[in-house]
Every structure is written in C-alpha cells, then in structure tokens.
Design goal:
Blueprint (H helix, E strand, L loop, with lengths): L2 H23 L9 H35 L4 H21 L2 H24 L5 H27 L7 H24 L13 H13 L13 H58 L2 H8 L5
Helix pairs in contact: 2-4, 3-4, 3-5, 4-7, 5-6, 6-8, 7-8
C-alpha cells in the first residue's frame, strides 16, 4: 500500500473516531489541566456520555417494542421519516435553521426506528431495505436543496459560494452512498470513510441549531463552516471508498488466482499418478510380465 494512502487511511479513521467522540461525549474545553486531571475529566465525561447513551437506548427500545407490538408497518415509518425530512428542507429554504435542525433530529429518529421495528416484528423484506436505502438518498438531497434555495435567495444572506458548497456536498453525499452500494456487489462490506450518513446528519443538525442571526457568539452561525466540511469530507470519503474497493477486489483476485494455480497443480499431480497406474495395469504390460524370461 502506498505510504500516502496509509497515512490518509490512518488520519481518516482517527478523524471519524474524533467526530463520534465529540458527538457522544462532548469536546473537552476550559483551562489546561495536568495529565491526571485531564484523564479524570475525560473518564467522567465518558461515563456521563455512556449513561446518556444507555438512557436514550432504553427510550428507543421501548418505542421499538411499542411500534412492533402495534403491528406498525416499518415501510410506513420510513415514508414518515422522509416526509419530516422534506419539512426540514422547507424550513432550511425559508431560513428557519434552528427549527429545521430540531425537525431533522425527529426525522432521523424514524430512520433509526424502521429497521429495528422490522427486525423485532419479523417483517424484514428485501423491498423494505431497497425502499429505506432509496428514500435515504431523497432525505439527504432535500435538505441540501433547501440550503441552496436559502443562500440563492435575494436576501442579506445571499452567497453564491454557499450555494456551490451545498451543491457540491449534495453530489458528494450521493456519490458516497452510491459507491458503497455498488461496491457491496463486489465485496462484502464498504462502509469506510470519515463522512458516513450519520456524521453528515449530525453536522447538519449542528449547523442548524447553531444558527442565530445577529449573534456575535463565536460558536453561532456555523452552517457555512459545516458546508465546507461536508463538501470536502464527502469527496474524501468517496475517494477512500474507491481505494478500499480497489484494494479488496485486487486482494480477492490474487487469492482466486493463487487458489486456481494450486488446484491446477494438484490436478496435474493427480493426473500424473493416475497415468502411471493406468500404464501398469494395461493389457500389454500384463502380457509382457507373463512372458518367460529368455536366458
């Protein structure tokens, strides 16, 4: 593997892990602490984050059980989630970023529920998986279209650059998902990369909830920064998946070629031994062996 790709893969994996740690446990801030204090604070944050995660999982599990026992069709949950995502896209288009972020959280709650309800109720179908995957792409694009409409409008927030970034991020997110779907027809799994769908949703939620026009706070109005991350990170992830697929396919081809050569070698040896046995057991050899020896 080339050294540059090893470094990019290493950096990509660590960035992905850092983003998930930031989402679940919160970023460390404040004054610098001694090493022991930092470790203690991180441990406390981790335990606190784990408690929140367990509490949220209990709530989601209860909702899944209730929906499954109520015989709710998982495909209906998928369609409802997409409809709520469309509402979020409309709110982004009209500039209500904060409420669009809130609605986006609710929409993706349905996205988490449909698969779990299908598994618990024994209603997992191939069409359900196809429907969920297809409508997820629509959910992604409608949010980016809303952002493009907002920044293209003739208002004080008009920005051609942000329109371009939202469009580039939309194309990149579609290519990431397509690369994964196409690659998994060649290899078992292709979910590598920094910006998968959950990370994209989290970033959009952060961008929406942080938007407060007129605020001078440094952490407010971070949607343009989010668009930069999405635009660049999506193509990085797409390139990573292309490289991962090429490497796995090349490795599989090498293994197949090695196995074919091994089988051919074994067949050749078996054929040689079989030919020798046939020659010994042939009628001419038996006659020659039964003839009296001449002196």
């Amino acid at each position: 593997m080339p050294r540059c790709w090893r470094f990019l893969t290493f950096l990509d994996n660590h960035l992905s892990a850092s983003l998930r740690c930031t989402v679940y446990f919160g970023a460390t801030g404040g004054d610098k602490l001694p090493l022991g204090g930092v470790l203690e604070e991180r441990l406390e944050r981790k335990l606190f984050g784990a408690s929140i995660g367990r509490g949220a999982q209990r709530i989601i599990s209860a909702m899944v059980r209730w929906l499954a026992y109520g015989h709710i069709n998982p495909n209906l949950l998928t369609v409802i989630g997409v409809a709520i995502n469309v509402l979020s896209g409309l709110l982004f288009g009209y500039g209500y970023f904060f409420w669009a972020g809130v609605i986006l959280i609710v929409a993706n709650l349905f996205d988490m529920l449909d698969g779990q309800v299908a598994r618990l109720s024994g209603r997992v179908t191939r069409f359900g998986g196809f429907l969920d995957s297809s409508l997820d792409r629509l959910s992604d694009m409608v949010v980016f279209v809303g952002l493009m409409v907002f920044y293209a409008r003739d208002t004080e927030f008009h920005s051609t650059l942000n329109v371009f970034l939202a469009g580039a991020a939309m194309m990149g997110s579609v290519m990431v998902s397509y690369a994964s779907a196409r690659a998994e027809s060649l290899i078992p799994k292709c979910d590598v990369g920094f910006l998968r769908r959950p990370e994209r949703v989290v970033l959009l939620v952060i961008g929406g909830l942080s938007t407060h026009p007129g605020s001078a706070n440094y952490f407010a109005n971070r949607m343009p920064a989010v668009l930069w991350i999405l635009a660049i990170g999506s193509y990085w992830t797409f390139a990573h998946r292309m490289y991962h697929t090429w490497r796995e396919v090349w490795r599989a081809d090498v293994e197949i070629a090695a196995q074919a050569a091994k089988d051919a070698s074994q067949n050749g040896r078996a054929g040689g031994e079989g030919g020798g046995d046939a020659k010994e057991n042939s009628p001419s050899s038996k006659i020659a062996s039964s003839a009296p020896a001449s002196h």
